[in-house]
Design a protein that fits this description.
mainly alpha
Amino acid sequence: MPAASRNSETVPPASRSSARPVRTEIITTDRVAIVLSLIWLGTAGQILWLAPSDPAIPLDGFHILMTLLALFLPVGMIWVAAITMRATHVMREESTRLQAAVDAMRQARVAQSRHAAARPERPKAGPDRSGLQHKTAAISFSRNHANLRPASATHKALAQKGAERDQRSLPLATPPEALDPPLTNADFIRALNFPETADDTNGFAALRRALRDRATARMIQASQDVLTLLSQSGVYMDDLPPDRARPELWRQFAQGSRGREIAPLGGIHDDTALSQTAERMKQDPIFRDVAHHFLRRFDRTFADFEARASDAEISAFGDTRTARAFMLLGRVAGTFD
């Protein structure tokens, strides 16, 4: 893993609390445009149909063209206004999301300094990793505000996410993200590692593009949830450099292999992190549900990614914070037994 990626713990993506209202506004805009178009066409058509014909006016191509323009030009203007309003809603949502992410990063830096001062040092079992000493605790976001919230509120929200996330249906209107180009593998990998710092412009850009993809956005949210809960137990992914597994093993996992055949994928061997995670898995039902939801989402998402990824891209994916969380939770849950 590059040194730049070890500077801080994961910073979850900004709250997407405005996504549903914005989509509602877009659907409402489309419906209003449809209703206005039908009203205009009905009214204008009735007037033209009932208007007495004047034999002095010849019925040639020019008059037919002008009649059609008078009939359909207002409809075109209605839809131009509707498309403009849709673009305005999308830009406003994006601006709100970016501002929330930046604000969260600033608060995370403050939390980092406090945590580093209060946290006792653990004995080092391996070589010195001084570059990993600065971690940022994962932050859980409210659905309505990009503010920090207490752990109890985090638990209540996470208890409902796993059941709700897979049951959301597509809106009636075509969502704006459906018009975006396909997510590249490089952006997918960078997004699942989360932005490094508040100045990580490329990381935030990749995260924005990844959040427009429904499946990847669900994977990012599941990863954020589990990393948030792990950080509450003092388990940080930057403290857990894994043993690298060959891309062939990752491909076997994507194709359905489980157990000792793919045991090298469980490359996290930190006894403290494993024991703390196993203890919480037994005692905390909220954590257990979130962890199992994350593992299921990881299975489906990685299977899709493996089909289009090269060996080098799979190796880079194995170094992400999301992949490390999978290795840790997979060992605790018995995926590699």
